[in-house]
Design goal:
- Two copies of one chain form a homodimer.
- The first copy, chain A, is α+β, with helices and mostly antiparallel strands.
- Chain A has helices at 3-14, 25-40, 121-135, 157-163, 167-170, 223-232, 255-264, 268-275, 288-294, 334-347, 374-386, 401-410, 435-453, and strands at 45-49, 67-72, 80-86, 106-108, 111-113, 143-149, 174-177, 189-194, 196-205, 211-212, 297-306, 315-316, 319-328, 354-364, 367-368, 392-396, 413-416, 432-434.
- Chain A folds into two domains: 3-195 and 366-453, Zn peptidases (Aminopeptidase, 3-Layer(aba) Sandwich); 197-247 and 292-364, 2-Layer Sandwich (Alpha-Beta Plaits), CATH 3.30.70.
- In chain A, β4 and β5 (111-113) form a beta hairpin.
- In chain A, α4 (157-163) packs parallel to α12.
- The longest helix of chain A has 19 residues, at 435-453.
- The mean pLDDT of chain A is 94.
């Protein structure tokens, strides 16, 4: 990678653009402004968009990070290309598990270590560098639109709420997204489906204060024990989900989808050496590919109550919370899944506790794309030129909540190809992205845009 | 209360003597040194004691707060009185729930608000002020020994390990302890029994890092879900303890004990207005007095895993911990109860998790004292002079782990009378102690020491 590109990349990474954290709002605005200027140099007209009144309700009491929309008019009769990415990143904690400062890009053995080095700053920026390479060439230029949001890691609420009102701006023929992984061994992967995601917070309140566990032990209900018992009711002992109605309407994969998905799913051994323990999540009796690609999940992202410090504090905690996210598959709507879980929680409130379910963020439903589309054929050819093995089709367990919203608003056909690898450790301490991956993403952008223009 | 006493009391309260927190070690030493000087003015010879090598093993890797031992030789032929108290206090968190600074004594409506205002700085200091009043009088003076430790809130490990080697120092006829509550309405209460206490930390480790809940959801085991499911196995749905062998050998109370205990146990209504929720802890079908005085408990003091901050972090947590304490009754030993729980935890380790049980602190067994002892008669008379209603006998659900150890080492008969009330909120934010309570404790000390000397 030439030095000037690396300098730009590192400048972008240094912004602490944690979209979920109100304390980082300023960093998000600065990051979006930096990108607007960067695109401006390529002839894009950019603007920072903020949601209007309707989005400012109880579910979004604070100003969300801005959405950068930029457009570069192209020649008559060329298709319109829409590029989506997100400049927000996951929080850096647990900070003390980082070997290098989380917002200080550090190169070790050809990898850049930094929060956002891959997800998604590294991937979309590499892609935009490829677009710049394309624009530097002779030949017809399509109209290119870029939408970069700052809330993807926390539900994309603003962009989703605005998507329909932005119909005219977003209208395009193809939607290009670089925010996913290649198959193991960097074999190219085309996303044929994504799971949806929703999240919320569960809070239990019991006594009016933390209580002495001797004076009140046996008398007062314990919020820490209660949250444990409540959370434990969400799954059966075999790992299957115990929430009535949660899986109603789920559309199972057909035979072609299951077979194609097997190709790109890592083996039990690969997984075990990656995560450092047996891959025993999900339901006993289902295959790995079923569990990660075609089954929904209810995941406890955090549980907190009472004392956790050094020594002991022998209290009966009065309050507890659990942060919960769900991965959704076609046939489930975020609302129907959430209502099923809420009903379950309300039906299982432990004795003496008051339940509240807070901060529900609908996110988006999951979707699957038709395997036999012209766009998929075009992408298959380009990717076969880049890699003799040709691409695999992936039904990714992860989510890009807004893609379905943008897809609907823009009318564009999504083409989702990214160059992540498991060792990038996105969402974890010591996230990284290699120069090799960066250059692949850049080359892919140059080639696919060229191919689309024809 | 005269101003000079209040100033001394407030000086004592300002020491951040959180014995469980290594960061507060210096404050503990300063606090003990202050008390040594204070007793010195009354003619006590004092010394700060630290455990010797044997206690410095893996279970106590750091230097514990010092034990203050002070002795004032008395006249020939008088009984020897041993006074026990603890100058350490519970941690102040959750800090932000304090209406006044936790280590800044603040007087509101005749109550002193401060961590330790009651438990136990306020109670033992009021008692020592009564001892000073006694010493100021004419007449025979007994030998008085004072032992004040700095680890009561976290298991009294140092003093317990040293008790036997301190036999000669501690040898006494009567052991006076002011670290408990009066019955509701400040009716005097003599402790006829205490529950024991032990505590430990449970840790689960699964994946080698926090994982992306989309990429790995359905594949990787979740430590937050696992700790919830593990903790939930400790109790049956009716609130009874589900740990095999935990209650083996428990000695049920006899009829006199049960009847006497009923007198001092608050009603369901009193409890509910005190704690702000239904008193539905413990086992359904047992009475309040059974549950708090004669039944053991397994209490979750804290549970922590994964993300708990603003917004969302959709991770699969890789690690989780639960801090657990047990209240024990006669017939259980700390070791037998702990081994039963450990076996239970090992038998129920969730799939994909590694279990470790850490920081086990044996604390002490529970005990019950004979109702018809001469010392109890003497105390009954004194307390009947102080309050026409006379004393009640209480089998306190709380613990003073070292009392049994000191009792054994000193050969003294324990007389445990304190002046706490539920509204003091010990162990909770906004702990307080009223001047009325302080003066009662001070008067009690003057009267009972006089009566013992006869």
């Amino acid at each position: 990678m030439d030095e000037s590109v690396q300098n730009e990349y590192f400048e972008l990474l240094k912004f602490k653009s944690v979209g979920a954290d109100p304390a980082c709002f300023r960093d998000c605005v600065d990051c979006a402004s930096w990108l607007k200027r960067w695109l401006g140099k390529l002839g894009f007209e950019g603007e920072l968009l903020y949601p209007d009144a309707p989005a400012q309700d109880a579910s979004a009491p604070r100003m969300p990070p801005p959405i950068l929309f930029a457009e570069r008019k192209g020649d008559e009769g060329t298709p319109t290309i829409l590029v989506y990415g997100h400049y927000d990143v996951q929080p850096a904690d647990p900070i003390d598990e980082w070997k290098t400062p989380p917002f200080e890009p550090t190169v070790i053995d050809g990898r850049v270590y930094c929060r956002g080095a891959q997800d998604d700053k590294g991937q979309f920026f590499a892609f935009l560098c490829g677009v710049r390479d394309f624009l530097a060439k002779d030949g017809a230029k399509p109209t290119i639109k870029v939408v970069l949001e700052g809330q993807e890691e926390s539900g994309s609420e603003a962009l989703e709420s605005m998507a329909l009102s932005l119909r005219r701006k977003l209208a395009a023929d193809v939607l290009l997204v670089c925010d996913t992984s290649a198959a193991s061994g960097m074999r190219p992967a085309i996303i044929a489906g994504l799971r949806g995601v929703s999240h919320f917070t569960v809070r239990l309140k019991g006594p009016n204060r933390d209580l002495h566990s001797g004076e009140y032990g046996g008398l007062a209900p314990n919020a820490a024990q209660a949250i444990a018992e409540l959370v434990a009711t969400l799954h059966h002992r075999d790992g299957s989900i115990a929430v009535a109605g949660f899986k109603d309407g789920v559309e199972p994969p057909d035979h072609d989808e299951l077979r194609a998905a097997e190709v790109s799913t890592p083996s039990k051994e690969e997984l075990e050496s990656d995560i450092g323990c047996e891959p025993v999540g999900g339901q006993i009796g289902k295959t790995l590919v079923q569990r990660v690609s075609f089954e929904p999940t209810i995941e406890v992202n955090g549980i907190h109550s009472g004392y956790g410090g050094p020594g002991a504090k022998t209290v009966i905690p009065c309050e507890a919370l659990a942060k919960i996210s769900m991965r959704l598959v076609p046939g489930q709507t975020p609302r129907s899944a959430f209502e099923a879980v809420r009903r379950h929680l309300e039906d299982n409130v432990p004795r003496g506790m008051k339940l509240s379910v807070e901060d529900y963020t609908p996110g988006a439903a999951g979707f699957r794309l038709p395997l036999a589309s012209p766009l998929f054929r075009l992408a298959e050819n380009v990717l076969s030129e880049m890699d003799g093995r040709g691409p695999v089709f992936v039904w990714d367990g992860a989510s890009i909540p807004v893609v379905s919203a943008i897809r609907e608003a823009s009318g564009a056909a999504p083409l989702i190809v990214g160059w992540g690898q498991a060792e990038d450790r996105i969402h974890s301490p010591n996230e990284s992205y290699s120069f090799v991956q960066f250059d692949k993403a850049r080359d892919w952008a140059l080639r696919i845009v060229s191919a689309i223009v024809g």
